[in-house]
Amino acid sequence: MAQQSEDTIFAQSSAPGRAGVSVVRLSGSLVGQTIKSICGLVPAPRHATLLWVREPGSGARIDQALVLWFPGPASFTGEDVAELHLHGSPAVVRRIFSVLSEQSGHRIAEPGEFTRRAILNGKMDIVQAEGLGDLLSAETEAQRRQAFDVLDGKLSKSAQAWKQSLMTALSLLEVSIDFSDEELPSDVLDNVHGLVSEVLRAIKTSLEGSSQAERLREGFEVAIVGPPNAGKSTLLNYLAGREAAITSARPGTTRDVIELSFDLDGIPVTFLDTAGLRSTDDEIEAIGVERALRRARNADVRIFLRSDSSDENFDDLIPAGDDLVLTAKSDLDATAGRAISGKTGDGVREMLSDLSAVLSGRIAGASLVAHERQRIALERAASALDLVVRRGGSIAFDPELASADIHSALNALDYLIGKFDIEAVFDLIFRNFCLGK
User: Fold this and answer.
1) Which domains does the chain have, with CATH numbers?
2) Tens of pLDDT along 37-69?
3) Which end of the chain, C or N, has fewer beta carbons within 10 A?
């Protein structure tokens, strides 16, 4: 049964400003009454109907719109919902908002309030709402796929399956506690241990892939580092296709870290153009070098540009792991080995291909646990279940302690999907949502 909220809410669901079409969405118990008042009738459910939108009372025409009607509970929020597809004029939207605001029991929605009502009415859970938020802000194909899988309920279904296994284990433990004076089949505790161990393995696998999932959601940082005048800014400008950074033959031109967002084969990447690494007495340049070192150390991958093969490493910033080491300015010196030129583009395609392979390998093991809140919930569940498993082979195994630990794990999984302490996570999730969602 859908939970009807006291207020009927409305908001613009499309992007603000001039557009071909602007969409205004309404949700609540008064929607049908309002649509009839301003449009003259309530259209057939889920059939786009062209109607005049008029001011109540005077009947003055505001705009002609495609009107969609979704009676609850078969709607996004589980309540009665309507959408007005208007001409994309800011003046039209403002007038519609003014008319709706004057209706009794109506108000502008808060950020994420439509999704919040969908959760409260059982249309989705908190994990799916986080997936929806990620989908709305996805900028690359890999981010879209990851977010859609979460929105589609894959992580939620896994959590429900884990809960079901733990409930089975818990029921076996409760039997052993209730009938502790009677002889029970010898495999009861073995079954408990097996069920808990299986869930623990699955949760640990998800946690192992969470760091990659978080990096995919947030984007990878790739720092371009090297000595002054090695062509770092020129390379960044080539990647940007514009003059994103000032370039000059004078060393020390770049003082601050310049960022460039990039879609690398569907993987979100932010390239960082950093100050040239050298010792300097210039106070401002020294600050730039320190910032460059800090960002480079924290970056996921570093691209080292060397002016020649004799360049020394700066401080403790040395190539490691998947870092790329390239000889810069191949247009001036055809040096043997891996070389690149931000001026001509020589070697850039190969560099991007290598970088794509590195990052693709990192996200290959990504799970669907892409938020810190989700990771913390699963870490709590894993910690509780680990206690059960470690005590499982002990003669001193206590069913009551095991039962308490499993209850703790279940509480953590309930927190994950929003069935426990739901209000504690609402603000965290919806603070970045747009008004129309």
Assistant:
1) 8-124 (3.30.1360.120), 131-209+369-418 (1.20.120.430), 219-363 (3.40.50.300)
2) 999 999 999 999 999 999 998 999 999 999 999
3) N
